[in-house]
Amino acid sequence: MSGFMLAPALRSGETVHAAWCFLPSPPVAETIAREGFAAIVIDEQHGLWDTATILAGIAAVRHGGAAAVVRTPIGDFAAASRALDVGADAVIAPMINTAADARALVGATRFPPVGERSWGPALAGLSDIKAYLRDANEITLTFAMIETETALGNVEAIAATAGIDALFVGPWDLSIALFKGTDIDPNSPAVDRALERVLAAAAKAGKFAGVYCSSADEARAAAARGFRFVIAGNDHAFLRGGADACLGGLTAARQ
To answer: What single DSSP character describes residue 174?
Structure first.
């Protein structure tokens, strides 16, 4: 079906660079999409998005030419199903710690026989509902976030779960877990070793691996390592960076 861009891109071998949006502003998300990012992640967990703004945000991101992805709240698999119902290309579910968690996520995001997703994509902009039912398990993606020691210990089983398309690493939370809450360092050697383990588990299961990065330099390095869905920054940082550059220019002009 037309309109769903992320799954075909990843399955064709592309590396997809994406931006993350915390602010519940569809125009901001669309503006970032128009700059050329292939995908935009709408963050419902730590961001300020709700169901109404997610619906508008997905439409805006698609209008801007990018794939729309929703990161759902912890354990809210109903929200994952709802995000797909309103047209998301993919969902990213945080704190998937066990194979049982992965199966519960799949149950809500995959139609039978893979899962038990209920029917309700009335707002997904469908022209052919039977074609969507036939193709939905292939044209939408389900990402399981690996961000705890427990998840790392179960990463092979999570990756092997039928219906999970990709593993996604949250390096910040993973570093907190690995340091037992005493530090936060997403660039530490411990996190680096964990990233290798996630990449290996994804490769073994024939799945994709994604990771959150805070800069273009980090994103390029992650892609070179084999991550295929790579965040390269977020809306808040882009706004701050643009404002800082402008003020820096004003300061320089006054000197």
So the answer is: H
Q: Secondary structure of the chain: what % helix, strand, coil (to 5)?
A: 50, 15, 35
Mean pLDDT for all residues in the chain: 95
- Residue 58: domain span: 6-254
pLDDT tens, position by position, 14-32? 999 999 999 999 999 999 9
Token pair for 219: 């994103």
Q: How far apart are CA 15 and CA 232, in angstroms?
A: 12
| Token couple for 194 | 């964990």
Q: What is the CB neighbour count within 10 angstroms for residue 18?
A: 25
| Number of other CB atoms surrounding residue 251 within 10 Å | 9
Whole-number Å distance between alpha carbons of 115 and 108: 7
Q: Which residue has the tokens 């026989």?
A: 113
Q: Is residue 24 part of a domain?
A: yes
For 19-28, 47-56, 122-131, 231-240, which range has the lowest pLDDT when averaged over its residues?
Answer: 122-131
How many independent structural domains does the chain possess? 1
Query: pLDDT: is 2 or 157 the higher one?
Result: 157
Structural domain includes residue 1: no
Active-site residues: which are they?
46
Q: 231 in a domain, yes or no?
A: yes
Mean pLDDT of 98-123: 95
Between CA 247 and CA 176 the distance in angstroms is 34
The tokens describing 105, both together, are 């996520």
CB-neighbour burial class of residue 20 (10 A; exposed 0-12, middle 13-18, buried 19+): buried
How many other C-beta atoms lie within 10 A of the C-beta of residue 154? Answer: 21
pLDDT band (50, 70, 90) for residue 119: very high
> At 76, which CATH number?
3.20.20.60
Q: Is 39 domain-assigned? A: yes
